[in-house]
Amino acid sequence: MLEISNKTNLLEQKSYRYSLQDVEEPNLYRDIYNYEEIPRVAFNHRRVPIGMPEEIWITDTTFRDGQQSVEPYTVDQIVDLYKLMSRLGGPFGIIRQTEFFVYSKKDREALERCMSLGLKFPEITTWIRATKNDFKLVKDLGIRETGILVSCSDYHIFKKLQMTRSQVMDQYLATVAMAFEAGVVPRCHFEDITRADFYGFVVPFVNELMKMSAEAGIPVKIRACDTMGYGVPYPEVALPRSVPGIIYGLQHYSDVPSDMLEWHGHNDFYKAVTNATTAWLYGASAVNCSLLGIGERTGNIPLEAMIMEYASLRGSLDGMDPTVITEIAEYFKKKIGYNIPPMTPFVGRNFNVTRAGIHADGLLKDEEIYNIFDTKKILNRPASVMIGKTSGLAGIAYWINENYNLSANEALNKRDPLVLSLKEWIDQEYEGGRQTSLSTHELEEKIEQLSGGRFRRL
Q1: For the segment 373-417, what is each residue's pLDDT rounded down to a tens digit?
Q2: Mean pLDDT to the nearest integer, 205-219
Q3: Smallest Cα–Cα separation from 261: which of 103, 19, 57?
Q4: What CA–CA distance (Å, rounded) separates 406 from 375?
Q5: Rounded CA separation 324/280 (Å)
Q6: How far apart, in Å, are the Cα atoms of 328 and each of 38, 100, 131, 273?
């Protein structure tokens, strides 16, 4: 049968529908996932079209997946982070939703306090077990949507759940029916989709979900979960690892609309951000992230990274306030005691700091030479240098100008007597055997002394 696609506006074949393949032995893709070797990337040279949705947005799992890998946040910390996230996402809700646990008294207190703030975005959703009591709890709390785990690879179906594909599908469909009965939108978490039999299980299962959704008159969301970070963004890659193939297949063979399609990835192979952007490009409206990328093992998709990706793709921040990213990083460091690796993009201590004298010389002449963008304007974090044995005169001059917030008329150049005197003292420090960088306190103390009080400790 030929139908006009509402995405491409072209006639497309819609006659073929995949049926469940209820195999006796699990398909573990041993040619790709040998376990004793690094997973292989197989190509089939089939291209699928880019099809970015009209709207794209970010969803958050800081208080669910993120919280599982660190010491649990206090109720006050969750409320504070929720408020910061709302400011970051802006009035148009580019950070659309965030998900909470509801199991403990503390979980429910945090959820209820965040709901009481009356903020439109991010919408509060939940993640629950597949029981009638949990659905009732969510309904009683006034939550519109909840996540439900539907593990979809044979690793989980056969090895963890010890069931067949048909048995597990029946169980999942019964669970979703409970959500519909409770009037709650189910968000189905297709765990381990990058090791799943896509046409033998995933597509037939999604087809049944879409059929049930139409009958119930309640939407169902599909979250494609790259649980182990195996997804790859390259064109012409074969399933099950192809991010373009997964997103295209869910839309083309299961008619999942973009606004019901979400990507959730992990960073085991350093591809979390690229895979998430690829999911956007090929048709998923939502990518699921966590603040600072905190999550299982190597972490989730960093939310702050996807804000930058959004702005890169759309040419606008659409009301988001990226300076809040710096506030969030400071909150994690000072209020939570979380140690952010110093080289982490956008939030690490050293992300826009240079130690090299030749780079500092460039910064002194024009910071655009060695800074990725105007970090002071966009993130409220001016570019800076760290003073050490390789800093040079330019690095010292740049540090003084930034540390004391000197205007263009007041700024020192690298031939200023104070800069020369400070460089002489720094050289003596390292010639005497020092190995560490100089602290701000040490530098300010010495500058006060060498400047005759012109510059005092801040």
Answers
A1: 999 999 999 888 778 777 788 888 988 988 888 888 999 999 999
A2: 98
A3: 57
A4: 17
A5: 24
A6: 36, 19, 35, 19
Read off the pLDDT band of 364 (50, 70, 90).
low
- Calculate mean pLDDT across residues 321-334: 97
Retrieve residue 427's tokens: 């050289």
Do the bridges between strand 221-226 and strand 185-190 make them parallel or antiparallel, or are there none, so unpaired?
Answer: parallel
**Cα–Cα dist 322/308, whole Å:** 9
- Residue type, position 86, single letter: S
For residue 208, what are its two tokens? 């049944």
Q: Residues near 407 by Cβ (< 8 Å), separated by ≥ 6?
A: none
Compare 363 and 282 and report the one with higher pLDDT.
Answer: 282
Residues in the chain: 458
pLDDT value at residue 356: 63
| Cα angle: 34, vertex 266, 40; to 5 degrees | 25
189: three-class secondary structure by DSSP: strand
Question: Cis bond leading into 91, ω under 30°?
Answer: no
Q: Which of 299, 315, 247, 289 minimizes the C-alpha distance to 122?
A: 289
Query: 290 is written with which tokens?
Result: 């966590």
What's the pLDDT at 74?
96
Which one is predicted more confidently, 3 or 106?
Answer: 106
CB 304 within 8 A of CB 340: no
Residue 346 C-beta-side C-alpha neighbours within 13 Å:
21
Residues 6+ apart with CB under 8 A from 330: none
